[in-house]
C-alpha cells in the first residue's frame, strides 16, 4: 500500500473543493443580503410617498416666497412658478454684490484674452496679405504660361545629340522600382505615380464653397461613394487628363540661371521632345494652389481661435459664473490679487 492509502488524511486533494464551496456560500449570502436591503429601501420610499399623498398634513410647505401650499411629491415647490420666483429673488439679492466685487479686483484672464485677440488680429492681417500675394502669383503664372506659348518653335542639333546620348543611362522608378532610361524617366514616373494615386480616394460629403477662389479642388461627385473629390484640380489623375500635345506646340518653360535668377527667356523646344521641363505647367500651378490652400487653412484656424477666446471672455463675467464663483479679498488695501511670481 502506498502512503496515501495508509494515511488518507494527509492527501490535500479533498480539502480544495471544501474551501471553494464555503467561499461560494459566503458570496451567495452577501448577495442575498444586499438584495433584501434594496427591496426594503424601495418599499419604504413607496410607503412614504403613499402616506404623503393620503395625508396632506405630513407634506412640507412650499419654499416659494409667500407661498402657503404644500409641496409636490419629490419636490420642494408646489409649482414651477414658485421655484422661478425664489431663483429670481436670490439673483436680485446676491448678484449686485458679486458685480461690485468683480469690478474692484482686476481680472488677469481678461487681460490675457485681450492680448490674445490682438495677436490673432495681427496674424489674420498677415494671412490675408499672404493670400493676396498668392492670388497675384496665380495671375502672374497664367500670364507667363500664355507668353511662353507664343514663342516660336526651334530645333537645335545639340539638344537632339544630348537626348540621344542619355538613352544609355538607366534609372530606377520611384513608384514601381523598374529600371527606365533617362530619356523617358520623367514621363514614366509621372504616369506610374498617377496609376497608384488613382487607387486611393480623397473625398468629402460636401463641396467646397470659397469666395473669390478659382481652380482649387476637383469637387467631382462620385455616385458610388457619394462624396466629392478633394484632390487639387490640377493634380487629380482620376478626373482630369492632360491634353494631347501637338507637334507645333512649344515647351515655353521660363529659363533660370543659378536656380533662382530668372533670365527672361523661354525654352523653345517642342513640347514632345523636351524632357527637362516635362509637366512644368502642372507642377507650377499645383505649387501656387497649395500655398493658397495653406493660407486659407491658416485663416480658418485663426477664426476658430478668436471664437474660443471671445466665448471665454463672454462667459467669464456671466450670470452663472458670478453666482457660482467668488473671489475673497482678505486685505481691502490690495487691489491686484496676483502673486509676485505671476506679476
UniProtKB/TrEMBL annotation:
Keywords: DNA-binding, Metal-binding, Nucleus, Transcription, Transcription regulation, Zinc, Zinc-finger. GO terms for molecular function: DNA binding; zinc ion binding. Coiled coil: none annotated. It is found in: Nucleus. InterPro entries: CpG-bd_C, Spp1/CFP1. Its main location: nucleus. The keyword Protease does not apply. GO terms for biological process: positive regulation of DNA-templated transcription. Residues 1-52 are annotated as: Disordered. This is CXXC-type zinc finger protein 1. It comes from Vulpes vulpes.
Amino acid at each position: 500500500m502506498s502512503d496515501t492509502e495508509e494515511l488518507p488524511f494527509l492527501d490535500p486533494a479533498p480539502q480544495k473543493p471544501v474551501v471553494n464551496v464555503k467561499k461560494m456560500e459566503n458570496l451567495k449570502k452577501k448577495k442575498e443580503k444586499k438584495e433584501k436591503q434594496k427591496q426594503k429601501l424601495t418599499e419604504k420610499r413607496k410607503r412614504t410617498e403613499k402616506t404623503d399623498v393620503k395625508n396632506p398634513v405630513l407634506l412640507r410647505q412650499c419654499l416659494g416666497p409667500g407661498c402657503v401650499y404644500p409641496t409636490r411629491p419629490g419636490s420642494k415647490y408646489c409649482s414651477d412658478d414658485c421655484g422661478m420666483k425664489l431663483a429670481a429673488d436670490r439673483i436680485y439679492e446676491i448678484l449686485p454684490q458679486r458685480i461690485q466685487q468683480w469690478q474692484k479686483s482686476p481680472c488677469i484672464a481678461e487681460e490675457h484674452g485681450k492680448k490674445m485677440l490682438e495677436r490673432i488680429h495681427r496674424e489674420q492681417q498677415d494671412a490675408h496679405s499672404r493670400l493676396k500675394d498668392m492670388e497675384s502669383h496665380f495671375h502672374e503664372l497664367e500670364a507667363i504660361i500664355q507668353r511662353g506659348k507664343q514663342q516660336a518653335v526651334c530645333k537645335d542639333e545639340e539638344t537632339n545629340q544630348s537626348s540621344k546620348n542619355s538613352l544609355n543611362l538607366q534609372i530606377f522608378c520611384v513608384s514601381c522600382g523598374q529600371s527606365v532610361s533617362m530619356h523617358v524617366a520623367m514621363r514614366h514616373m509621372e504616369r506610374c505615380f498617377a496609376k497608384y494615386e488613382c487607387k486611393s480616394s480623397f473625398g468629402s460629403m460636401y463641396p467646397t464653397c470659397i469666395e473669390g477662389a478659382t481652380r482649387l479642388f476637383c469637387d467631382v461627385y462620385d455616385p458610388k461613394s457619394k462624396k466629392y473629390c478633394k484632390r487639387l484640380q490640377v493634380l487629380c489623375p482620376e478626373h482630369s487628363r492632360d491634353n494631347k500635345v501637338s507637334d507645333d506646340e512649344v515647351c515655353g518653360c521660363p529659363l533660370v540661371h543659378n536656380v533662382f535668377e530668372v533670365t527672361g527667356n523661354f525654352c523653345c523646344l517642342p513640347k514632345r521632345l523636351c524632357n527637362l521641363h516635362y509637366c512644368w505647367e502642372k507642377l507650377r500651378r499645383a505649387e501656387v494652389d497649395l500655398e493658397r490652400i495653406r493660407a486659407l487653412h491658416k485663416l480658418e484656424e485663426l477664426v476658430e481661435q478668436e471664437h474660443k477666446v471671445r466665448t471665454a471672455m463672454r462667459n467669464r463675467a456671466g450670470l452663472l459664473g458670478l453666482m457660482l464663483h467668488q473671489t475673497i479679498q482678505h486685505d481691502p488695501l490690495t487691489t491686484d490679487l496676483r502673486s509676485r511670481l505671476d506679476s
